[in-house]
Amino acid sequence: MKRITILIADDEVEIADLVAMHLEKEGYNYIKVSDGKEAIRVISDQKIDLAILDIMMPELNGYEVTRQIREKYQMPIIFLSAKSSDLDKISGLVMGADDYMTKPFNPMELVARVNAQLRRAMQLNQASNESILEVGGLTIYPDQRKVILYDEAIELTPKEFDILVLLAGHSQKVFSAESIFQNVWGEAYYEMGNNTVMVHIRTLRKKLGEDKNKNKFITTVWGVGYKFNG
């Protein structure tokens, strides 16, 4: 079996070397780069299974690298950054990252999170027999991770797509923000998890055209959570 390859993008050599050492012990291949442009070049040229990105990098910062990755690829992305505020974490997740760790960090915890994200990605890729979901001009293809709205494809981040599939796959069931976070992010709920879910729901609604169309696919059940109108 081909070994998994992980991209480490960090301009702090000591940090990159530490991460690489622990990933190698776990049996992973790795590629180290020190700036955002080089990260994009490597991803364009090689098969990368997961990316670990610093935010504050030369050439292109981690946010911009994530934005460009998400235009073409679905690989898991973990931010590893010295930026530690709740706003930084939410911004990273909204940009399309799957996880966020702050420096200083425990290398073994990072490896555990890498393993979790790779397992989740594998499970999603294997879910190829799921039914197509259709409602009110919206068609969701879970196996292709594709969404068509009124005959036009709409681009969703991986987390937006996972939220949509979760809600649409359980039409009329009300999900709390905590339940959505645990199902989609696959980790324990934390203090700012509600804001993270709320921001993703807001951007998802905008992409679904709820500000322009009569259809309201996602309804807020005040004081409880969210449900899909199917």
UniProtKB/TrEMBL annotation:
Annotated GO biological process: regulation of DNA-templated transcription
Any Gene Ontology CC annotation: cytosol
CDD domains listed in its UniProt record: REC_OmpR, trans_reg_C
Highest taxon of source: Bacteria
Localization per record: Cytoplasm
Domain (Response regulatory): residue spans on this chain: 5-118
Main location: cytoplasm
Swiss-Prot/TrEMBL keywords: DNA-binding, Phosphoprotein, Transcription, Transcription regulation, Two-component regulatory system
PROSITE patterns on file: OMPR_PHOB, RESPONSE_REGULATORY
DNA-binding region boundaries: 130-230
One Pfam family from the record: Response_reg
Residues annotated with 4-aspartylphosphate modification: D54
OmpR/PhoB-type domain span: 130-230
Gene Ontology MF: a single term: phosphorelay response regulator activity
PANTHER family: REGULATOR OF RPOS (PTHR48111), RESPONSE REGULATOR SAER (PTHR48111:SF2)
UniProt protein name: Response regulator transcription factor
